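Structure request: ArsR family transcriptional regulator, Peribacillus cavernae.
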Amino acid sequence: MQNQRKPTNLFEIIAETNRRHIIDLLRTRPRSVGEIVERSQLSQPGVSKHLRILREAGLVTTSKESQKHIYHLRAEPLKEIDHWLEPYRQYWSDRLDALEEFLDEEE
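Returned structure:
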């Protein structure tokens, strides 16, 4: 079996589709591993692997309810990505404004 390199930065971590899906599930409410497995195409070991990576990145925390580990989203680390995206939002906003002006002139 190949030894896969662990993602080292937040962009690499959320680039993976299954991890984004897990983040989306946790955005609505905290969930157990079993709930995440039910709502994904992954096995329990697969979900656990992704949750471990998300936990190590500080994107999720856990609490314990009876025998279940409940995962909670920590959105604070996503501010790094939001900050990086800000200039691109302005870029697209400017382009859309120019397009709107062009279309208004065409009428």
